[in-house]
Amino acid sequence: MEIFNHHLGNMKFQLGETIIQMKPIHVWLILGLCVSPIVNEFLFVDPEHMTNFRMKRFPKKKNTYELKEIDDALKQAKLERYQEDVRRLNLLKIILSFLILNKGRNIWVKYVDLVDDLDQFNKFPWGEQVYNFLWSQIVEFANYRSAAGKKSNKALSLHGCTWVLMI
Known about the structure:
167 residues; alpha+beta; 3-stranded antiparallel beta sheet; two-stranded antiparallel ribbon; 52% helix; DUF1985 domain-containing protein; DUF1985
């Protein structure tokens, strides 16, 4: 992989024989997700402040939660027949499994709190978040590949919503 040009609003890179230029608007066009600057109030959630949903489903105060914890909470919510929490937990799984896929399979507490308010969740600029995360992963991937002493034939994983790159 070779990056020709990159800054947060635009990236142009070559993957194999294919040259790809991508901007946040492409994420919007491909996935239909809102693209706009991410408002600070979405990004800075105090982990000490626990919403009712988080307190009920994730009683331990943490900065991140694992997929297993989400699955366990989902099973419990289904047993209790509490459909609002089932919906919220399924949204967390979509974020973790598709939008902001990461190798640790952890989701940040800010997203747990975001699903507690479905109006705010729907207003959140997911396209911008997907683009920013994918951009950081591509830069990290290219930097790793170009580092001295790295074997070029070693397989590496690119995390994020890589489906955008397949279109």
